[in-house]
Amino acid sequence: MATMTGPKWGPKNGGAPKMIVFLLHGLGADGNDLIDLAPHWGNAAPDAVFLSPHAPEPHDGAPFGRQWFSLSDRSPPARLAGVQVARPALDAMIDEACATYGLPASAVVLMGFSQGAMMALYAGLRRKEPVAGIMAYSGMLIGAETLAQEIVSRPPVLLVHGEVDEVVPAAASRQAESALRAAGVPVESTFCPRLGHGIDDAGLSAGALFLQRAAAGIQSA
What we know:
Layout lengths: L7 E2 L9 E6 L12 H6 L5 E4 L5 E2 L7 E2 L8 H26 L6 E6 L1 H10 L8 E5 L9 H4 L6 E6 L8 H12 L4 E6 L8 H20 L1
Parallel strand pairs: 2-3, 2-6, 6-7, 7-8, 8-9
Antiparallel strand pairs: 1-3, 4-5
């Protein structure tokens, strides 16, 4: 498996990391797209190192950018096949980071935007070693129909979505919320009025609170 590449930031307090926050970018971006979120959230999790890995594949629909899996075919079966193929690469990145920093998976939070959110939800709910939490922005729960049979861990989940998202409809996160609750996953959601496919101050604040709680849980473990 390829070694993880991409920018990192923190910990803000300058000490050894006690928490790892992955920032998983969307289709056609790369790790540089989300690393600027780290300073916003560093106050909430000053012991965290933020890792924003480049997805493993070049974007097949543009001459630049990366992808976790192809979305040239956006049908549900193709999306499911895509996350299934991409999941081992993300799992390897998580394992590699845990080994690098000497931390367990229970000290990891997965944050993803758009396609990155799809990856965070799919992989995070199926890991034998549970992560501390999942933050899914403007995403979608792929494989919802088999989640009850495949779910292995139930970390707390935060869903954030713009109400006027023109790329991934907000209904996708509402459906995810229902499916996650049905599977016994603790889930909270923030739907942002007048926001399209992006992250606003309300979403940043919701993420900061989520990370604060995750950090407190890790420290008390």
